[in-house]
Structure formats: C-alpha cells, structure tokens
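Q: What does the assembled structure look like for these inputs?
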Amino acid sequence: MKAFTRCTATAAVLDRADVDTDQIMPKQFLKRIERTGFGEFLFFDWAKDPDFELNRAECQGAQILVAGRNFGCGSSREHAPWGLQQAGYEVVIAPSFGDIFRQNCVKIGLVPIVLPAAQVKRLQQFNGRELTVDLEQQTIEDPSGELTPFPFDPFERRRLLNGLDDIALTLEHEDAIAAYEAAHTA
Amino acid sequence: MARSLFEKIWDTHVVHEAEGEPTILYVDLHLTHEVTSPQAFDGLRLAGRKVRRPDLTVATMDHNVPTLPGPIEDPLARAQLDALRRNCEEFGIRLYETGSGREGIVHVIGPELGLTQPGMTIVCGDSHTSTHGAFGAYALGVGTSEVEHVLATQTLSLVKPKSALVWFEGSLPSGLTPKDVALGMIGQVGVAGGVGHVFEYAGETISGFTMEGRMTLCNMSIEAGARAGMVAPDDTTFAYLEGREFAPKGAAWEQALDRWRALPSDPGARHDREIVVDVAALEPQVTWGTNPGMVAPAGATVPDPDEYADPDERAAVARALQYMDLEPGTPIEEIRIDRVFIGSCTNARIEDLRAAAAVAAGRQVAPGVTALVVPGSAAVKRLAEEEGLDRIFLQAGFEWRNAGCSMCLGMNPDVLLPGERCASTSNRNFEGRQGRLGRTHLVSPAMAAAAAVAGRFVDVREFEVESVPA
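A:
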C-alpha cells in the first residue's frame, strides 16, 4: 500500500449528500478484472454534464475532495476508491462516510477524513484553492492560514504513514490464527 | 455480564486483540462471486500467498450472468466469469457454476444450501451480505482488499462496531410485507442512520417473520447505512435449516441446537442505541427518489423539496425529483410505469415469488408494461415450477427467467433504457442503478405484481388476492 504523510494540493468541492458508489464508479466498469485504469471513469455519468461540479476549471488537477455527508454509501465496490485514487485524489474530507467505502479507502491508502459538518462547510469555501493535509500532525491548513485539526484512528494512521501491508500485519499473528483453528475445528 | 447476540458472536471469534489495535476476527464462511474477487486473487498471486481455508470459501456466478439461455455475448462479462472459474480451480475453491443446478445469487444460495448458520461470522465482497444476519450470524460486506485479506488469513482486521437494537413496536397490519417494514424503517432512520452500527432487529413482528422475511429485512440493513443486521435465531430458524445440505446432521445437529439456543441476547443486554419503529400504522411503501430513504406510503403524494428544512436535504430531494421526472404533489398512485422487476437478493426467494404470483394469478400485465420475474437461484426456480408459479406468471404476461442478479444492478443484459420507469423489488434506487437514466421505484413483490397489472402504483390491498395452487 502507498504511504501517505502530507499532501499540498488543489481542493475540489462536491457538496452533495449521500453520494453512492454507483455514481462514483458505475456498474459497467466493474466487469474489468484489472485493478488499474479506473481513473478515467470516475463519476462517469455525472461527468457528462458540463456543469458537473468537478468539471469546473478550478477543480482540474485536484487531489483533495471535499464532499458531503454519507459520501460513498451503498455498494461495497472498491472500484469506487480505486477510481478516485487513480484520478489523482489522495484525500477525501466529509462529515461522514459509508462504512465499507471508508474502510476500502483506508485499505488502499486513500485518506478519508471525517470533520464536523460546519468545518467541512468552512473548507468548501476553498474550492479550487490549495489545502495542505498533514497526517503526521493531523491538521488541514487552508489559504487563510488556519489549521483545522482532525481525528484519525491511531492504528490506521500508523499503517498509512508507513504504507504497511494489512495482510502482512495480520500474518504476524499466524500462530494465534492456527491456535484458534485448532481450538475450534470440530 | 448480560451480552447481546452480536457481542456473543464477536467474543467467540476473537483471534487476537490488543489495546489500540483493531481486533483480528475469525471468518467462518467466505462467499465470493465474479465481480469483486479477480483483483483479490491477483493480489494473492503477486504476493505468493495461498487461500488459507479453501474449505470455508464458496463461489458462485451471479452478477454478470444473463437470465436468458444461450451463450454470454458480453466479452467482458465472459472474461470475468472465466477468471472466477480459473481462480477457483487454481486455489481449490468450491464453485457453483451457471448450469450446475446449484447456482444463484450468493445471498440466496448460502442460506438455501445450509451454509449460513447461526453464530457464524460471514463475509462476502458484496454489501448485501447483511442478508445472512437473518440466521443470527454476523455477516458483513467488504471490499476487494478485505476479500484478499480473508482469502489469505481467514480473518478480518476490524474495529468493533457499535450495536443498536431496532425494536418493531405493534402488530403489522395484514397485507404488509417484510419489504414494507424494511423500507419504512429506512425512511425513518435515514440512509446514514445506521453508519458504524450493527442492527439487531427484534419485536413481535420480527419473530413472526419467516426466514425469507427476515432475510429481506436484514438484506436492506446496508441501505440504512448499518454495518450488518441480525435477528436472534429461534425455532423458525432451526426449522428452516434442518435437513439442508450443509446443515449439521445427527448428533452434530443436536449439539448445534444447544449452541444456537444460547445465542439470543441475554435479558438486560446493553446496546449503544435503541431505535423504535412503530409498524402498527405502516402502509405499503413505494420509493419516489434516488435513495431507499426517499420513500412514502402508496397512498401519499410525491413530496415538495420546500417542505425540507435542512438545505442539504432540500437540494437532494430537488435533484432526485428532477432525475425521477416527478412533480411535487403527484399522488404516488398516479405514477405510471414501463417495467417491472421481481427478483434480486432482497426479494427472489420462493415466498416472494408466491406473493407476487398470488396477485398476478388470473390477471394480465397492463398493455405497454414489460414485467420480469427472476428467481434468486436455480433451486428456487425448480421449486416455483413444481408449484406452477411459472405458469401463473407466463399466463399473466410476465417473463420467467433463469436465476441471477438480473436487473437489480444492470451488469448483465437485463437493464432499463434511458427514461424507463420501473417498479422493482430490488434494494437500490440510485441513479442509473438498473440502467443509465433508468428510474427505479422500490416496492415489495406483491406491490410490484399489482403495479404490473395496473400499469401504475396501486395499494395491493385493493386487489383481491386469489389463492395459489400449492
């Protein structure tokens, strides 16, 4: 997994509630058996609308997405976070996330940050401008110079900062898995 | 200390726990299908890893398979199914292929084969894995990275979710179905109402549900944002399981019953939250928007965005009505439909088909409406045909198809065309879910059959339901 420490980049705002993973990565792209090449299909149907928020000139090249509540609800498709990551996004900030989507993000090194709705609204005024997200310090610096601290699970933070492989971490406890199996196999 | 059903399952599956770390939880059953697994198997190969417990892993083909006989014409769908077949061979995994007679939607075949059992931890790369919670299992959907994690380690690395007791108060009026209960619950708690929580459903209504009904309700847990949904196992559960292919037999069955009977939440068990849903005044439900929480009784009208105080919600409702091409104030019963889909992991079990057939019997699908009935598995299809349900549907002008996910998610030839409006027994009415620019209204199987006949939404209780030959 890709390690993440900090990122200074353009922020793009998608201020819609309950954006589901069917919108982030529509069904027809789920038939691919590769793990790459999803970036160009991000928000495929919405992106056809020239007025779609992320089509605006100031959002081009954005690496930080500032989203609405319950972002990534619905289907478990990891193709949705793959699409975001492969389109260049490194961080998604929202008041809340769909549980599976959030989990998928953490697993692939796309950083999901939860902030109170009022703070997300405040950050939305910086659409098209640069934010600095620092996972080590757990802060977001905006163009006004203000630092917004954010909470992050300490274990997940360590995994992301070091780019640790989840499976390798679990296999450190292989003895415990074997012992569990020995005790529970009928 | 008094423990809840969820806590009991969690506690007995802990492999490793340490302060400040996620818990490593053992997985008893890993179900897999063609769409979310190929990249996980590739990951194993790249890392030189094996599947730790192929004997606890079961695969089927469901999302991509056409429901009409004949070859698979979509080369991408075919490649994905071929990849699953190769991966199952290479890693020694049991696969119920299309045409094997045991294939079907992963969340239909798990229970019907008796693989799904009380007290288990069950994982699948599919959000509707919550279905299996109907048996008193902790069943959750995961993404492809976690599929790979389970394949390699037979465990999940998880932070313990919170638990919520969802208590259904009052007696369900006659003519109301588990789907109406599920949609009514989601309408009340909202599509994010369950985020971070496992729902335990309880109350007289739930104990009165059949296993099929409990599966419909647990299936929709994810649509309320919940991590999982579960119902305490009881005699209804045991009667459903007894004699099924992979259910314990003989002395092992008796031992299993002893274990399972100890699973229900102890009196005084604590939950992080309690939610009360009153079902006594529930009416048949129809969604009008683009998420399952945008739902109303059949007798209501399409809401006006201006009625919503929260600006985010107001914007979402306005956008949904625009997509759905609906005017505020329109009576739901005046909404005309083009298509009907009876199927999916939510509502394609035998009881669902019986309920729809009871409404369809002796009637005709309205002119201009195309209606599809897709059994959830090959076994459901066989049973329905033994009962003569296929003839009832065919005589009424419905199409009778082979098992698969079909028009629930538009990954196979069964899709809505742009602008088409569908009464669907599936679980998601997201934009484009059933086909680009298609418009989905979620309903129960009986309501879908009634809509097929009327050509518009009607309260199914207005139909005189005829008895179906057993």
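The mean pLDDT of chain B is 96.
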